[in-house]
Structure formats: structure tokens, C-alpha cells
Amino acid sequence: MRRTGLALAFLLSACTSTPDRETAPEPDGFWTGPMGGPVPATIEGGTVIDTATLAALISEHDPVLVDVGPTPHKPDNIAAEAWVPPPHRTVPGSVWLPGAGAGELAPERDAWYRGWLSKLTGGNQATPLVVFCHPDCWGSWNAARRAILYGYTDVQWYEEGIEGWQDAGHETQAVQPKLPPP
Amino acid sequence: MLKSILAIALIGAFAAPALADEEAERQAHWAELKQAVFGERPTVDAAGLIALEAPKRALDAALVPITVTTKPGADIIGVTVVIDDNPGPLAARVTYGPRGDPSLLALRVRVNQYTYMHAVAETADGALHETAQFVKAAGGCSAPVGAGEAESLAQIGRMKLRLGEVVAGKPVEAQLLIRHPNFNGMQMDQVTRLYTPMKFVQQVEITLNGERVLAMESDISLATDPAIGFRFVPRAEDLPGKLKVTVRDSDNTVFEESFDVPASGS
């Protein structure tokens, strides 16, 4: 019985990446609600890409890859020896800009994100730009939308994120964050 | 200390060629964690002495059931569970007493990102036997606090025990459920948008008529409402008896409960 339940769980989870899963409408501006949950199937002004498209894009067009996944929140009062921030594993070649997908960005952080995109694209706003974090995470939608509003013309939102990349059997690389101003 | 070790490990990872060798990186991370937990003591491959069962892909990363089994009759004095890529990797450290039976340990854990999990058995001769399982689950550590946690908080410290068949001299299967939100300090309250302060079960001691079955030290990786599946072996003179559970959480709050163990049956 327990085994059947487990088998069923496997089947159900295998279905989570099928296209018929729950989606949300695109918000006006940015999403300021909880970061996890159903996300839109589209992004106005940009393109939604899947893992196969990303893999092809990487091998053919050398896009700028931006991972906006959050850093783990260190609990207050945790014993120093108990806290080991895990390696942040991402699509090889990505630059990790945690916090760039927040619903609201303070001006200093907005300038930080804008500055990084400008640096990474060499100031060429037509550079293919891929933005991602985790599946069902609004952070990457917000950050991609932000890039579109900055004027980038080839923004690809990779919604499946790092787990989608791993599920397809691709390697990851551990990277350090480029931290935003406090 | 663990941090500086980790920093060295990370620097090592960056020195790697552009195409990261992920598997080597993961093994290096485990090696550093192992040193932090067990010091310089070497480990050997489990070779059938200990096995770790976990879903290869978990539906709910905040509630991943894992089962550690060890070879019956092996002289095991303790079992440690490490979730390599959790920010608090040491999930549980169990030490068995004279009434304990290490052949089974079932827990429910949170998983932060796709990771190896390790189970390590320590035998009486001091040897460490390790086994691993790769688990695809993500987001379990920062999963938001919901209604379930509020209910757990309201009933904090309540316990339930389910017993299998009781026969003197034979391992008795037991399932302990402890009501406790087990806040890990990484969960955001979706209404207030604040992080709920850490409050988690840190120690569990289980005795039969005053003699230890097991003692467990745990950290922020255990799921809400910690559940422990275990076995104990009552002698004829222990029955009927009392199984006593003492739980201490990170705020030093202590919860105690005693359960009757019948002379026989279930």
C-alpha cells in the first residue's frame, strides 16, 4: 500500500513539467506576492524557452545567462557550525545575481542589476539574455520583465530553471553570488 | 571551522576547468562535510551493512520520507544522516542504547536542492560505514509557513506512538509523531513577509523503563511534526512497561510523554 503510494508519487511528480500545469496571468508591472507558485506561461516583450532551446542557444549564440535564485536566508541565532550554505549550482557560465527578481527593487539595487546587465552584454541591448531561477518562481519572471523594461530586445525567460536543467541531465557548476548592495 | 573548510572547498571548485565536473564537486563537498562531522575518521563503503531509501524524486520537498535500514545483528551503535546540500546538513545523529535496535530509522526531512543524502552507521569497533542516495527535490527548506504549522504550534509537544506487535525478546516496531512546527528560520510568513524565527526539535531521548532505546540530536532539516520510526527490544522483565519520550527544542523547552507497552500483542 505504502509502496503503491510512493509509485503514485513518482508518477505524479513526473507530470509536473507537462504543459497542462497551472499558470497565472501576467501581472501589470511586477509580481509582489509570494515568490513561489504558479507563474505565467508568457512574458510580454520576451520569449519563454524550454531546456532544449536553452541548450541549443548556449552552443550556438553564447547568450548572457543570469541566475536570479535567492541566497538561503540564514536563520537568526543559528549556531555557527550548524550553518553551511550549500554550493549554489547553476547552468555553467551563468552569473548569479540573487535578489534581482524581487517584486520591488530599491533604487540602489535597481542600479546594481542594470549595471550588471550592461556589463555582461557589453552595452549591446540586442544580446541574447537568458534569465532563470527555479520552476514556479516569480523571481525570474520579474527579473526578465525588468530587463525588457530596461530596453533589452532579446530576453529569454527560462522558466524551468536550474531544476529543469538538471532534470534534462545537464551538468551544473557551483558559483559565488554577485551580491546586491544592502 | 566548518565555514573555512567550506571556503577552501569552494575555492577548489572555482579552480576547476570551465566545464565543472559536477560529480567531483559533489564528492568534494561530502568529503568536507564528513570531516566536519566525523573529523579525520575514515569511512568505508556500507557493503550491505546500511542502506538508505529515499524517493529519487520527491513530490513535497518539505516532507521527504527517508528510511535507513541496517543489517540485523550488526553491532551498530549509532546512525547519522547528512543532507549534503541543505544549509543545515546534519539532519540527525542517533545513538542507540541497550534497549534499542538500529535495524530501522525512518524520518521525514526537508530538502533544499537536488542533493546527495548520506547515511553513516558507526559500529562498536569505531568503524564508519557510509551509503548515499541522490534525491531530486528542491525548495523544502524555504517552503512558506502555512496553516499546518499554526496547528502544530497550537498543539506543540503532543505526541503519538504507534506500536507494532510486542513480543519479549523481539524487535518491536514503533512510530513516534511529535507535534512541533520545527521552524528552521528560513521560512517566510506569507502574510507578514517576515521570517519566522527558528524553533526546532534538537534532542529526542527514548527510554524503556529508564533504559535507553535511542537518543537523537537533530537540526533544522527535520520536517514539520517530526516523525521517528524505530525499533526497540523489550526483555520479558520489561513487560508490561513504559516507553518514555523526552524532547528538547532549540528554545530549551522540554516535552515529555510516557506510553504503555503491553505485555504482549499490539
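Chain B touches chain A through 49 residues (CB under 8 Å).
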